[in-house]
Amino acid sequence: MGRLLPLASRTDEIAIKPQKGFKKMKVNISMPRNCKNNVSTGGVYLDEILEKAVKFYATDLMSTRMSNTLKIRVHVRKTVLKKGTLGQVINNCKGSIKQNEYLITLDYKAFTADMLRTLAHEMIHVAQIATKKLQYRYWKSDRKLHFRWKGEEMGVLANFPYKNQPHEIEAKENQEGLFKRFYLK
Question: Is residue 63 part of a domain?
């Protein structure tokens, strides 16, 4: 039986035990300055919950090999998002060029469960882009953002209402199931 080590204080560097299949995946969680990071249930820190959720969602949505190549930064912010927006994912619009760096921004004011649902939604978008199911590209000819869905050119993204965008439809349909699998595990 292994030795039990004392828990590190919050001021110390917290060493998270490496999980199988996550030797290369990099997840960075950034919280707002001067915030109380402690979730009231059980004294578990929100950044730790979010990191576990990102890793769970990545392995659920993609192969371990693909998820190991990703660098995901999650910023929990108070004022960056537009009113009524709970989260967003940002990446470079390079079309078919492989992308492995993603920035997910979540609303700090949301309840933890809503934050985890939003994170599931945004991680579905990360999987769509990483697997090249969804591709964004700025066209030089019209200087507008176009998108492809499953290899088919869909046109200018701004011409599609948010509710009718195929990648948003898929994310909305699957976010609750993904959240429940994480929450009930």
Answer: yes
Q: Taking 70 as the threshold, does the pLDDT of residue 144 lie above it?
A: yes
Is residue 11, in this structure, part of any structural domain at all? no
Total structural domains within the chain: 1
Question: Has residue 45 been placed in a domain?
Answer: yes
Amino acid at residue number 113: A
What DSSP element (H or E) covers 156?
A: strand 152-156
pLDDT tens profile 32-66 = 877 765 554 566 788 899 999 999 999 999 998 89
Closest to 94 in 3D by CA, of 129, 67, 58:
129
Instruction: Evaluate whether residue 102 is within a structural domain.
Output: yes
- What does pTM read for this prediction? 0.81
The answer on pLDDT for 11 being more than 70 is: no
pLDDT over 50 at 1, yes or no:
no
Q: What is residue 171's predicted lDDT score, i.e. its pLDDT?
A: 96
Can you give the C-alpha Rg of the chain in angstroms?
Answer: 18
CATH number at residue 156: 3.40.390
Domain range for 49 is 26-183
pLDDT score of 97 more than 80 = no
Which string of DSSP letters, residue by residue, matches 2-47? PPPPPPPPTTSPPPPPPPTT-SS-EEEEEPPTT---B-TTTT-BHH
Residue count of the chain: 185
Residues 71, 47 contacting (CB under 8 angstroms): no
